[in-house]
Amino acid sequence: MAADxxxxxxxxxxxxxxxxxxxxxxxxxxxxxxxGAKRARARDSFSGRAREVISNIxxxxxxxxxHRKEYVNAGSVMCSDxxxxxxxxxDQIDQDAxxxxxxxxxxxxxxxxxxxxxxVSTQVKNHRAAVLDLIEAYLRGVCKLYSEQRAVRVKxxxxxxxxNVDLWEDNRVDDDLSPEEIQMFEQxxxxxxxxxxxxxxxxxxIEGKVVEISRxxxxxxxxxxxxxxxxxxxxxxxxxxxxxxxxxxxDIREAIKNNxxxxxWILFFLVMCSFSLLFLDWYDG
Amino acid sequence: xxxxxxEKQTAALKRMLNFNAPPLKNTTAEPVWKLLIYxxxxxxxxxxxxxxxxxxxxxxxxxxxxxxxxxxIPDVPAIYFVMPTEENIDRICQDLRxxxxxxxxxxxxxxxxxxxxxxxxxxxxxxNAVNLVTKVFDQYLNFITLEDDMFILCNQxxxxxxxxxxxxxxxxxxxxxxxxxTIVDSLFCFFVTLGxxxxxxxxxxxxxxxVAVKLDKKLRENLRDARNSLFTGDTMGTGQFSFQRPxxxxxxxxxxxxxxxxxxxxxxxxxxxxxxFHLNRVSVEESQGSxxxxxxxxxxxxxxxxxxxxxxxxxxxxxxxxxxxxxxxxVQEELDTYRAQxxxxxxxxxxxxxxxxxxxAISMLSDNTAKLTSAVSSxxxxxxxxxxxxxxxxxxxxxxxxxxxxxxxxxxxYEEKLxxxxxxxxxxxxxxxxxxAGTAEDKMRLFLIYYITSQQPPSxxxxxxxxxxxxxxxxxxxxxxxxxxxxxxxxxxxxxxNYGSSGVKPMGLFSRVMNTGSxxxxxxxxxLVLKQHNLPVTRILDNLxxxxxxxxxxxxxxxxxxxxxxxxxxxPRNKNPFQEAIVFVVGGGNYIEYQNLVDxxxxxxxxxxxYGCSELFNAAQFMKQLSQLGQK
Lengths: 285, 632
Description:
Residues 28-40 and 169-173 of chain A have low confidence and may be disordered. In chain A, helix 2 (35-72) runs antiparallel to helix 3 and helix 3 packs antiparallel against helix 4. Chain A contains 5 helices and 1 strand, in the order E-H-H-H-H-H. Chain A has 285 residues and is mostly helical. The two termini of chain B are 45 Å apart. With 632 residues, chain B is of the alpha/beta class. Chain A: Syntaxin that may be involved in targeting and fusion of Golgi-derived retrograde transport vesicles with the ER. Chain A: Its main location: endoplasmic reticulum.
């Protein structure tokens, strides 16, 4: 139960103002806002664009939510005809939404790369990176809305088709054929219908499973992309490490050679010294 | 008070972080970004309650310390959460002058004085930034909530209000007043957040009484001031359906000095005693592998890992009060369940591989896709579970190492027997002179407990013998001086505390057979079972809550801030037993008392007890304070 003392603060400001006036100090109320222009300029570059992206995503979200009811309302027989959406309209919405989401994702990517190039302090960099993360999470939430909507629509279409089996009437009436041929034809028809139905069932099952698999694939690709950056950095490190090891080997080889050469020289020097000693000794004696 | 203190404090923090407006439930709302600036007090309050991820989810892009170098980030609002001290106010004024942020939301942890508010006002005027200071709030959150029903006062300056500071012989009145003011301020904030005016009971003649008098006065003043009272308002409505007011029991550490020195056997208390456990974060040292290091190589590096034990960790919530062997078994069980689930997921992989050979595999596909989807969605849960199991395995192994090397189970058993005055099988001298049972500190603790709980002090000759044995073992004898003084003092005042009857049943050999399969082979560590017994603090609470008459608590003072006239009488006006109580120990508390209170509450339906203390110390820290007092 916090206490709001903003009003108290404003009252203190007034008190201090009157006190300053009474003491004859500089009256600050006539000073212009010098930082207003500077603030406006800084706003344009990063946060202005970030806010633009957010407002676009919000527009998309509102649009999706607005038309959600009609979009999902696929195949209900008793809906009012005015708000009925045709399939082509739905496809149009799908396409538009996807293009829009892709543009937003591109805009975020662009902001990120630009931010990498600018020279600002670490804190500002971290702040901007976090802001971009927040925007991405928001975009992902809106995309989830859209894909849920779409999955519901696909499911309803699939269900609707299942119930239309009974509408496959066999309307063929042929007066020229004899009763036996008619019966034979009827039997064959039944058999064909049965076969088609079983095929249809299987296809429908596969369709449902494919939708699920596509969802799974989305999850997997997200995970793989996440790991991509880490794998890249590991790759760089390993390449660097191999280089270092190679150079290390070279250095060791050289050191061994130098060591050997050094020993040879020492040996030579000692032999020379002993010969010179012998010579001097012979010379003296 | 349906919501716990932790939930209330978290809700208050979340509201503050949402620009002091109640947070919306909308899941896909537009993100608004902001900065959080805090001082060390604010950091201690926020860190047990909100994780960095939760802060990010609320839109906080950066969280910075007030007194660090901060760069201007020109178009972002900044939320400040600081204590109203001189340095903090100066720094805020400096920020205003340097125009670091777009707008400022100032939240003070406890109430700010009028003069400091004017300082900020004049700085804002000078920087022409008055319109940028959008909101100023007094949050009244000057306490740290560690568990749903446990809180401590502060972590930063705890030497200021420690047991040592309150009880040192050369304390001056001004110091004492300062300490009391700090404690009362925090307790006042606690009751404002809780939203209830309690009935206060305290013993006579010690620090607890002083705190009670001041707190009563402060609550009374605030209630009288009808315009600005913090205890009325529409936000309080939800909490006030319980017409009963809570009972606030103030206890002083001096009434029971043996419990902080006691060796313990429950999981959370053991971690606090043996490892570095601080604000729900434990640091464990791990040694790097067990291969023999070749001669001349560098010594094995030990790295310290720290883990957070939070409310979301279900294993921790379930087992933090269980005796240690139970915890070991439970970790084993969790590991087994996890392995079973992992195997199931792996089996799916092999089924997927088989499928390619079979043409008619479309029917198999249907089951498996569903299984695959459920497996993939449950993977994050599984990973989290694995992480928690690893965490607890590491922590429990570290604790077990300490127990084995110091033979803490022997100490625990012996101390339980001492405190319950049952017969002892080994003599105290044997344990003290035993060179590989425990560190010097453990022996000193044992001896102090013996000294505190014995009915009459040991004879001079015995005492000399003990002292010599202790010095041989390497102990420092200054705490003993202090305890002698304390005992003399309390003997004059009241009868020494009775620790109640308890029993300890060792389950020696049986445990070996049971645990051979488990990862924790507890050979030689007796599997002790705790029987229920009541510590002095719990007994006092019981008497006061149930209005039982008992010579110990009959002359406790009674304060009711809502009454018009403060009375000196100690006759309680309320004859019904209380449903909710808050116990606060002035001078420090620990997890053993907390666990005892939790067990007491579990045994009684419908009662809620909160535990608070001015600081939380384990036995080692308490011994240090005692030796400082003994050296004076």
